Amino acid sequence: MHELKTPITKGRISAEMLEESRQKERLINVFEKLELLINEFASIEQITSGAGLTNIKPARLIDIIDESIDLAMVPPHQVKLEIDENLVLNVDFRLFTTALKNLIDNGIKYSIDKFVIITATKHQISVISKGSPLQQKLKHYIQPFTQAKNSHQSFGLGLYIVDNIIKAHRLKFKYKHKNGLNYFY
Asked: How far is the C-alpha of 166 from the C-alpha of 100, rounded, in Å?
């Protein structure tokens, strides 16, 4: 991790020293995205290495969602919440936030209106977006390096990471398409 983070940090610092410009913004965004990817790889390694969940604590769902939206770097107006703000989950905050961030990312990226709705009860959390149904079963998309056709902005790890984090929490990850809406829950 250190070998990857050091050059990214140096590049980010160098980019911050540039005069304000569109290129500076792009460079900073690239370095932020690289840092997020490295953190996600660390999450994958933690889960798949057998280390499992080491930091389970009660966390408010609203805090998990807020952090997920920040990590996804999407404007809050692209996400509508229909949740009980007092809902508390016993999860690894960092990992669960990563999973939800990936669902928000995918929901917005593949929706027709670049908008997601997050609903939650004590039994289920759903990320819902308008769009075409998946062309294959969810089982296909939770394999590593699987991505939708024409997706050049992705490594195809998002749903793989989500699935592994959800499994590590001993929960189930499902998908359905109904009335023009994709539900990941």
From this structure: 10
Beta bridge partners of 178: 181
Alpha-helical segments (H) within the chain: 2-16, 22-48, 61-72, 93-110, 138-141, 158-168
Cβ atoms of residues 38 and 1 within 8 Å: yes
Distance (Å, rounded) from C-alpha 148 to C-alpha 154?
9
In which band, very low, low, confident or very high, does the pLDDT at 52 lie, cut at 50, 70 and 90? low
- Choose between 180 and 146: higher pLDDT: 180
Look at the alpha carbons of 108, 112, 114, 117 in this order and tell me if their dihedral is positive or negative.
Answer: negative
Give the global pTM.
0.79
At 50, give phi and psi (nearest 5°).
95, -5
Q: Return the HEC string of 156-179.
A: CCHHHHHHHHHHHCCCCCCEEEEC
Amino acid 61: pLDDT:
97
142 vs 66: CA distance, rounded Å: 25
Q: What whole-number distance in Å separates Cα of residue 89 and Cα of residue 86?
A: 10
